[in-house]
Design goal:
- This protein has about 625 residues and is an alpha/beta fold.
- Strand 11, helix 14 and strand 12 form a beta-alpha-beta unit.
- The radius of gyration is 28 Å and the shape is globular.
- Helix content is about 40%, strand content about 20%.
- It has a seven-stranded parallel β-sheet with strand order 9-10-8-11-12-7-13, sandwiched between helices. Strands 1-2-5-4-3-6 form a six-stranded antiparallel β-barrel.
- The longest helix is centred in the first third of the chain and has 31 residues.
- The structure holds adenosine-5'-triphosphate and magnesium ion.
- The site of magnesium ion has 4 residues, from helix 6.
Length: about 625
C-alpha cells in the first residue's frame, strides 16, 4: 500500500476516535450537570415515559413503545442511539437501544437484547453517542487496509488509471450533459462523480443511472449520509418505476416509503403466516410453562435448561444433581424443549425470508452508516451510488464503498460539508468529503451538470452569480415558472431581536416569527400549504415556527438540503448590536437556503444588519437591482 494511503487511513482512524471522544464527552457533561428536565428542553432527553412491549423486528430485536401522554418534542431521530434509565442516565448498566420510530406521542426503541427495567413508569430516554456509527467507520477503515483492496488504495492515492467511456444511454427525458454523465458513470472502471449546482438534476440523473444499472441486471447499493437524503433518492427511483428496498427506517412514520422497508416486506412475504402461527404457538407454550413448577435455582447447579433437557433425555445425572431431581423437572423441561425448537424454527424462517427478500431486490437503500449493519455483512454489490456525497466524510463513505466494485459520488461541494465537532479531527481532514478529496485527485473524472430545472430565472440568477460564476442556466420550462403574482424574490426588513434559547446555543426571533406567520397567511390565499416551506438556519426558530404551523414543512437549512418547494420563506433570525451573524457566514449554507424555491423566495430578517457582511450585501444589492 502506498505510504500516502496508509497515512490517510491512519489519520482517518485517529480523527474518528477524536470525534467520538468529543461527542461522548459532550453527552457525558450534559447528563452529569443538567437535570432530566433541562436536557429534555434541549431536545436530547425525554422524561416521564411509560413503556409497553410491542413485539419484535424481523431481525429479532425487541421493540418497546415509550409514551408520555402528551406531545413529544425532541431532536432525537430515527436511527439514533439512546440509553433508557430511571433518571440515572450515566449508570453503566442501563440498556441502550436504537430509535425505531417516532410519532407525536410515542417513541419506539429496538433493543438487541431483552432489556430489564426496574419499573415500567418514570423512565427516561437520553440521546447517547452513536457508537455503532463510529464502530462501523472504524471497521470499514480497518478492512480497507487489507491488500484485497489494492484497487481502492490506488484510487485513493490518485494513481488509478481511471477511465470511462461515452456509450449511448437511451433516456429521452435527460439533457445531453445528464445522459453523458450517466454513460460515463456507468462505463467507469472504478470511480466517477456527478456534480453540479442546485437543481441541475443530480438526484434525478442518479435515479436514471440506477434505473440503467438495474436494467443491465446488476445489483446496486444506494446511499446518502442522512436518512432524509436517502428517502429523497428513493422517491426519485420510485418515480421511475423502480423497487428499492429500504434498510433502516424512513424519517417520517407512516410515510409513503413505509411499504418499501424490509420490515414491511417481511410481513408481506408468503412464509410470514407460518412465522405468525409459530409465534402464537410459542406464546401459548410460554403460558403453559408458567402453570408448571419452575426448577429451583439451587437444584439446577448452573446447568442451562437445554443442558438439563439433554441430561433428561439421556437419562443421566449431572454434577450435583440426581436423576430423580432431573426427572422431577420433566414437565417444565419438556415445554422448554418445545419452546427452544419453536424459537429456532422461527429464527430459521426469518433468516430465510430476509435473505429471500434481500436476494430478490436489485436496489438496496440505506444511510452510509446503516450499510454497515449485520444484515448486509456479507452483501456485495456491483455498484454504490451515493447522493449528497459532499456531506459524507471519508470514513462514512467507506462503509458502503468497501462492498462494491465501482462507485459513483453525486453531490455539490458548494453545499454543506460533513459536520465535525472536534478541532483535531478537523485538522486531520475529517471535514473533507471523499467526493471533494477525489475531485482534487481526478479533476477530469467528473461530470458537471449546468442546466437547472427547479428555479425561476430570478432565483437562478442569484444562485448562479453568487456561487457558480454565472455558469448555471435555467431550463426553458422553468425559467418563467410562477404560482402567484408579484416579484419572484421578496425581501422583508424586520427590526427584531435575536434571543438565545435558554440552555442552548440556538437562536430565535419573535418579530420574525410574527412576520413569517403573516406571510404564510398571505401565501395561503394563492397556494396550498404543501407548496410552502419555511427554512431557518437556526433550529430553535424552526421548532417554534413548526409548533405554530404544523401543516407547513418547516426545518433547518441543513435538513432541507436536496429538497425543493414552490415557495420558500427564509427567516435569518440574527439581529444584534454587534452585527454578528454567526454561521450565516458560511456561503454553503446560504447557497442551500436560496436554492430550494421553485418560484417564490421570501427573505425575512434584519437585512440592514446582515448586509454588513459582504456576501449578503451583494445578494441584497442584486435583488434590489433586479426589481
Ligand atoms: N432533464 C430534466 N428534465 C425535467 N426535469 C428535470 C430534469 N432534470 C432534473 N429535473 C427536475 O429538476 C428538479 C431538481 O432536480 P434534482 O433535485 O435532481 O436536483 P439536484 O441537482 O439533485 O439538486 P440539489 O443540489 O438541491 O440536491 C427536480 O424537480 C427534477 O425532477
Ligand atoms: Mg439532489
Amino acid at each position: 500500500m502506498e505510504y500516502q494511503v496508509k497515512t490517510l487511513i491512519n489519520n482517518m482512524l485517529r480523527s474518528v476516535e477524536y470525534e467520538r471522544e468529543e461527542e461522548r464527552e459532550r453527552h457525558f457533561q450534559e447528563m452529569k450537570y443538567l437535570t432530566g428536565h433541562e436536557r429534555e428542553k434541549k431536545g436530547r432527553a425525554i422524561i416521564n415515559l411509560k413503556k409497553r412491549k410491542s413485539g419484535r423486528t424481523l431481525s429479532g430485536e425487541h421493540l418497546y413503545i415509550f409514551s408520555k401522554g402528551e406531545r413529544i418534542e425532541t431532536e432525537i431521530n430515527v436511527g439514533d442511539q439512546v440509553v433508557v434509565s430511571q433518571n440515572s442516565p450515566l449508570d453503566q448498566q442501563n440498556p441502550s437501544a436504537i430509535v425505531y420510530e417516532i410519532s407525536n406521542k410515542s417513541i419506539t426503541l429496538a433493543f438487541t437484547k431483552q432489556p430489564r427495567f426496574a419499573s415500567s413508569k418514570g423512565l427516561r430516554i437520553d440521546l447517547a453517542v452513536n457508537d455503532t456509527t463510529y464502530r462501523r467507520m472504524e471497521e470499514a477503515l480497518l478492512i480497507l487496509r487489507s491488500p484485497q483492496y489494492s484497487k481502492l488504495h490506488k484510487i485513493l492515492s490518485g494513481q488509478y488509471g481511471v477511465n470511462s467511456s461515452l456509450k449511448d444511454v437511451p433516456y429521452k427525458d435527460l439533457n445531453t450533459r445528464q445522459s453523458d454523465a450517466i454513460s460515463q458513470a456507468f462505463n467507469n472502471n472504478g470511480y466517477y462523480s456527478i456534480q453540479g449546482p442546485p437543481g441541475t438534476g443530480k438526484t434525478y440523473t442518479a435515479a436514471h443511472l440506477i434505473h440503467w444499472i438495474v436494467k443491465q441486471g446488476k445489483k446496486v447499493l444506494i446511499t446518502a449520509d442522512s436518512n432524509a437524503a436517502v428517502d429523497h433518492l428513493i422517491r426519485n427511483c420510485i418515480k421511475l418505476g423502480l423497487d428499492p428496498l429500504r434498510i433502516g427506517n424512513p424519517i417520517r412514520v407512516n410515510s409513503d416509503l413505509k411499504s418499501y422497508t424490509l420490515d414491511y416486506r417481511v410481513y408481506k412475504h408468503i412464509l410470514y403466516d407460518e412465522v405468525s402461527s409459530l409465534q402464537l404457538e410459542l406464546e401459548d407454550t410460554k403460558k403453559l410453562q408458567k402453570t408448571v413448577e419452575r426448577p429451583k435455582m439451587k437444584d439446577t447447579r448452573g446447568y442451562s435448561y437445554s443442558e438439563l433437557v439433554e441430561l433428561l433425555e439421556s437419562n443421566q445425572a449431572g454434577r450435583g444433581i440426581s436423576k430423580q431431581t432431573i426427572k422431577d423437572m420433566k414437565p417444565f423441561l419438556k415445554l422448554q424443549k418445545k419452546m427452544d425448537s419453536l424459537y429456532s424454527k422461527i429464527q430459521k424462517l426469518r433468516d430465510q425470508i430476509q435473505s429471500d427478500i434481500l436476494n430478490s431486490h436489485q436496489i438496496i437503500a440505506s444511510t452510509n452508516a446503516t450499510s454497515g449493519c449485520d444484515l448486509l455483512v456479507d452483501a456485495h454489490f456491483d455498484w454504490v451510488i451515493m447522493d449528497e456525497a459532499a456531506q459524507a466524510s471519508l470514513p462514512s463513505a467507506m462503509i458502503p464503498i468497501i462492498k462494491c466494485n465501482r462507485f459513483v459520488l453525486v453531490g455539490d461541494h458548494y453545499q454543506l460539508p460533513p459536520v465535525v465537532i472536534n478541532q483535531e479531527a478537523r485538522e486531520l481532514g475529517l471535514d473533507q468529503s471523499l467526493m471533494d478529496y477525489l475531485a482534487n485527485q481526478y479533476p477530469y473524472y467528473l461530470s458537471q451538470l449546468n442546466v437547472q430545472y427547479r428555479m425561476h430565472e430570478d432565483i437562478n440568477n442569484l444562485v448562479s452569480s453568487m456561487f457558480y460564476n454565472n455558469q448555471l442556466i435555467p431550463a426553458n420550462q422553468v425559467k418563467k415558472r410562477r404560482v402567484m403574482k408579484g416579484n419572484i424574490v421578496e425581501t422583508i426588513q424586520v427590526n427584531g431581536k435575536e434571543l438565545m434559547q435558554k440552555d442552548s446555543k440556538s437562536f430565535y426571533n419573535e418579530l420574525e416569527i410574527e412576520m413569517v406567520g403573516k406571510q404564510i397567511k398571505r401565501l395561503l390565499k394563492s397556494v396550498n400549504a404543501d407548496q410552502i416551506a419555511v427554512i431557518s438556519p437556526y433550529k430553535a426558530q424552526a421548532k417554534k415556527l413548526q409548533k405554530l404551523y404544523p401543516d407547513i414543512e418547516i426545518d433547518t437549512v441543513d435538513a432541507f438540503q436536496g429538497r425543493e418547494k414552490d415557495v420558500v420563506i427564509i427567516s435569518f433570525v440574527r439581529s444584534n448590536p454587534s452585527n454578528n451573524i454567526g454561521f450565516l457566514k458560511d456561503f454553503r449554507r446560504l447557497n442551500v437556503s436560496i436554492s430550494r424555491a421553485k418560484s417564490k423566495l421570501i427573505l425575512i430578517g434584519n437585512l440592514n444588519m446582515i448586509r454588513h457582511n459582504e456576501m449578503y450585501d451583494y445578494l441584497f444589492e442584486m435583488i434590489q437591482e433586479a426589481y
